[in-house]
Specification:
Elements (H helix, E strand, L loop, with lengths): L2 E5 L6 H10 L3 E6 L4 H10 L2 E5 L12 E4 L8 H9 L3 E3 H8 L4 E6 L4 H14 L5 E3 L11 E2 L6 E5 L21 E4 L13 H13 L6 E5 L3 H8 L6 E5 L4 E4 L2 E6 L2 E4 L7 H14 L4 H16 L1
Parallel strand pairs: 1-2, 1-4, 2-3, 4-5, 6-9, 6-10, 7-9, 10-11, 11-12
Antiparallel strand pairs: 7-8, 13-14, 14-15
Helix pairs in contact: 1-2, 5-8, 5-9, 8-9
Length: 308
């Protein structure tokens, strides 16, 4: 049984990652500076071993196959120092996720806005078609049980792209690791909260992201954002750029319907971005083998169920 140790399990995504790895059959140990009762209970139920609050470098041994590093772990963390001394394989969260999904079709949804909604729609449509998929998300999606799922049988991995730095050890941003087969780029909106010093640096991150798309694969992009459109125009010749805008609807007797070649499908539109996000999700699902007609039926059910 492979052994994995996670440093700083209380960070966003780390607990869900620990539980997903354990469910996949790995032996999991974790550490954290602050251990809440809720986290302790979840770890105990999953049979993940936690030695308590604080750092326990003496517990690390040569038998550990991977050490996964939280983004907030400092370079002088005692467990990180011990892992280096032992020569253990140390990976950031996105690097670990990439290596666990190397044989899958990786779908990476990136951009400043709309990611959560688009991922929710994709997940709902895939589940309706009984297409199994793994996922790693920073957002909490209501249609999914948690933020991470890992399995041996699924051939699809749905990943929420993030432009944040991965860890103290690895200064690259998360988006640089995933090498998508299907990349989806919504829009770009720089501010000081993005963690980048300038708009130019922010743009370069996404340029690197589009350059990292696997050969002869796809970029689905929003035409209404000038920076995103510029990135799409500059992709390699082997990458197919697929534009999207708002889906067309028709109003009839105070009801709204998606207007499609397969007929009209009733929908509830909760916000101004819904039709943009729906069209983006449709084009991604099409690349994954979901027929448009099946997607529309799923989205009609999805939107109406949330309107109740």
């Amino acid at each position: 049984m492979r052994k994995v140790h996670l440093i700083s399990v209380s960070e966003l995504l780390m607990l869900d990652l620990a539980l997903a790895i354990r469910e996949k059959g790995y032996e999991v140990t974790v550490s954290t500076e602050v251990l809440t009762e809720s986290t302790r209970t979840k770890l105990q139920r999953a049979k993940c071993k936690c030695y308590g609050e604080g750092w326990f470098p003496e517990k690390l041994t040569n038998h550990i196959n991977f050490v996964v590093l939280g983004a907030e772990v400092r370079s002088d963390n005692p467990e990180l120092v011990k892992a280096k001394e032992l020569g253990l394989l140390i990976q950031s969260v996105p690097e670990f996720i990439f290596h666990r999904t190397k044989e899958k079709t990786r779908v990476v949804v990136a951009g400043a806005q709309g990611k959560k909604s688009i991922i929710s729609m994709i997940a709902y449509a895939l589940e309706k078609q009984k297409l199994k998929f793994d996922y790693a998300l920073t957002s909490e999606i209501s249609v999914l049980a948690n933020r991470v799922r890992m399995s041996y049988e699924s051939r699809i991995a749905l990943i929420e792209g993030d432009a944040q730095v991965t860890s103290e050890l690895e200064k690259r941003v998360q988006l640089e690791f995933y090498r998508p087969h299907i990349a989806l780029l919504t829009n770009l909106s720089w501010s000081i909260t993005t963690g980048t010093a300038t708009p130019e640096e922010y743009y370069r991150i996404y340029k690197s992201f589009t350059a990292s798309i696997e050969r002869e694969e796809k970029l689905v992009y929003f035409t209404g954002d000038s920076l995103v459109a510029r990135l799409a125009e500059g992709v390699r010749e082997d990458v197919t750029a697929i534009p999207y805008d708002e889906h067309v609807v028709v109003e009839k007797e105070k009801f709204t319907y998606l207007q499609t070649r397969y007929g009209e499908f009733p929908v509830h539109i909760p916000d101004a971005y819904f039709l943009l996000n729906l069209n983006a999700a449709r084009l991604v699902c099409r690349q994954l083998g979901v027929k448009d007609a099946d997607f529309y039926r799923s989205m009609s059910e999805y939107s109406l169920s949330f309107s109740v």
